[in-house]
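Q: Predict the assembly, please.
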Amino acid sequence: MSNKITSRSENFSKWYNDIIINADLAENSGVRGCMVIKPYGFAIWEEMKSLLDQMFKETGHVNAYFPIFIPKSFFSKEASHVDGFAKECAVVTHYRLKNDIDGNIIVDEEAKLEEELIVRPTSETIIWDTYKKWIKSYRDLPLLINQWANVVRWEMRTRLFLRTSEFLWQEGHTAHENKDQAIEETRKILAIYKDFIENNLAIPVVDGLKSSREKFAGAIDTYCVEALMQDGKALQAGTSHFLGQNFAKAFDVKFANRDGKLDYVWASSWGVSTRLIGALVMTHSDDRGLVLPPKLAPFQVVLVPIYHNEREYQELVSAMKKIAIQLRGLNIRVKTDFRDTHKPGWKFAEYEMKGVPIRIAMGPRDLANKTFELVRRDNLEKRTIEIDVIQDVIPNILAEMQSNLFSKANDFKKKNTFKVDDFDDFKAKIDNGGFVLAHWDGTPETEDEIKKITKATIRCIPIDSNHEKGECILTKKPSLKRVFFAKSY
Amino acid sequence: MSNKITSRSENFSKWYNDIIINADLAENSGVRGCMVIKPYGFAIWEEMKSLLDQMFKETGHVNAYFPIFIPKSFFSKEASHVDGFAKECAVVTHYRLKNDIDGNIIVDEEAKLEEELIVRPTSETIIWDTYKKWIKSYRDLPLLINQWANVVRWEMRTRLFLRTSEFLWQEGHTAHENKDQAIEETRKILAIYKDFIENNLAIPVVDGLKSSREKFAGAIDTYCVEALMQDGKALQAGTSHFLGQNFAKAFDVKFANRDGKLDYVWASSWGVSTRLIGALVMTHSDDRGLVLPPKLAPFQVVLVPIYHNEREYQELVSAMKKIAIQLRGLNIRVKTDFRDTHKPGWKFAEYEMKGVPIRIAMGPRDLANKTFELVRRDNLEKRTIEIDVIQDVIPNILAEMQSNLFSKANDFKKKNTFKVDDFDDFKAKIDNGGFVLAHWDGTPETEDEIKKITKATIRCIPIDSNHEKGECILTKKPSLKRVFFAKSY
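A: Predicted assembly structure:
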């Protein structure tokens, strides 16, 4: 482990990569564009999965699993979907290798598939092909299914967690008997995402609708949550799509409604991915390493003894094991590092780099005083605490850190959200980073023009905000409300 | 849902398929050889995953994630591995589709990969390519990593859960500083599999070594657990491989050992898959439908009200909700079915088909008597129980069912395991089904000959059994111990 990480001010992008590598979250693999998620990074994903899965289940969703391969023809069935997804993808054309006369392994040309298979970039098509068999009547609805899976989108320029050819995600695919219920589901999931991301990842988000240029290929409306990273760029953290009857029509999925008439099924789909780990890093971490909100930290507390001889070591280990048991009894995730192969200073640096929220160190004098030394990762504050009060102190500090991290990120977001009415000012603000709330005339043409000039896109169109009328920042045409512009990941 | 299922005696294979389909576990998809795991089937897999994952973590293993694609050349690096795995596989050759002049979606020949990618049939090669970067010294060992993933092996004849082109599994890949530790790990995992399968799936297994003909391509030794299905065929339930230094040599993974010298790393790999769901079905289910051991049942208890009018319905629902809360407080997984759209009889048949361990029904008379009717799925026994004692009765019955299912399967296994010394008797017993314990001279040639004549293979070579010397069943040459023969899935 090297502690040399680039500072954010020097090179944000390099800082990001340094954190991912030095905190042991992930690395590039021998396969172009694909990452290896290392155990520490994967443990964060497991915490996310477990929390989000519970939220899905509490709202009536169940998990299932659909094939990784999708026949090429399935994509052609939904016109806009195929343009968005079937282009940059992994194509399976053969199902056998063989030895050539020199003993080399080559593709067996006789084992060519009649129809090519696409490695799923998203599963709407294969799932709606299946739903056709499952849905006959309104009694079969709603169908509320989620899948945890790997997906592949061929990316030319990749960045760990943010954009890789293969990534992990969950994709929900629901079916409903009418439009209102499908929209209600789409919005319910958006609210779950916002709740999950704000209260567990401690990342404040803005939520709303995507413009037609930015929406999901095949959706009527795409809802999204967007977060602001420390470099002032926006990051799409999750999307929830109202699909109307598009996929039901493409795959001919009709049901007998309550009036006994055949109608097409209404749908939603929604997902978040391992990209959230990238958001986590870019929101909270600092120039010393990773900073993790306690709710997602694989270890919330790490215990390190400081000793000079074997007797001290034994006494400290024995005392610290008791503390670990006590904390685990409070459902706190504890790591003890009693390794004799590494010095305390090395361990301190390692756990600082890995963003463990609380570090507890104990030496012989602490033991005699029945105290320990505690360092918080968020503000690096050092305190001496009495062992007796550990049951109150540790949960309180963890809760405080969780809420402090959110407040800090929220302050940053507020300070970097600007209402702008002049286009020169707009360009300057966009260039400098942050969310810019500006009026827009509602046309894709204006959106394109603004993007061309400033590289900013509409990140989201607020739904419930006060409708403040105004004039488009570019065209001065009338506008019904301000929308969020930003440069983005 | 249709309750018409073929009986086991009529056609075991059709019975198996009928159960899978009618209990809503899985179905074939629109993609050749790939299945859809439906929510009820997936819930069983989630229970398995959660129990097994905990056992892995308690023994020091951590999860990670490696790429789904493996460059073709990686397979060639371990000679026997490539023969076993790289032949029938999904080959990715292109990374883009495009529209042709008629608007059809076709493969873009300009987007041909320089080197083909294989969709992982197992991950030893990509993982050892990665371990090369992670392992420098004995201090980096042992490395105890597991991955939950989908894998693809192109299968021409597929059967739901038992043999599909894509399936879900876990694959452990560990690295050690010496041979003994690698073998200890291999055996530790075998013991975990046996414990997991016997105590949760309630399936008795025999454990031991595979013969050289049947072992994993690339392993020194393959350990396995084998179970006996109700039709007398054996099913491989899990394997744990001692890989020696084969993959370390193939991928040049050396470490500085405790003497400061460079040595190749020692390895194990091990896995169980969604095939276990097939084993579960074929071990316990009956001609009425699925039978599930309580520990893996998505719902352990289902509550169904029997009523004639709205008042009765309301009273029953209110009483049964209280029972459900009480049971959930005991960590029992409860489903309440208060749907007014289906009659009680229909519901009873449905939950019988789905193998819910305990069905509780209540009518107005039960309510007046403060009792309910309970039916156990394993023996279909019906009892009237007082609500007051529910906290004791239900957990006891669930525990009893769990152990009864194991005893029943174990009795079946014992009754169908035969010691045989005469080859005609051997052929007859094999033909009839069951494990046949017979002497074997230890040569692959004899094993092949026996397989040719009887279709039986050596399922496993016991490790710790008393070494009873004898003569080979076919060649009469000397043999050190009996081995398990059977026809298998």
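Chain A has a mean pLDDT of 95. The longest strand of chain A covers residues 88-99.
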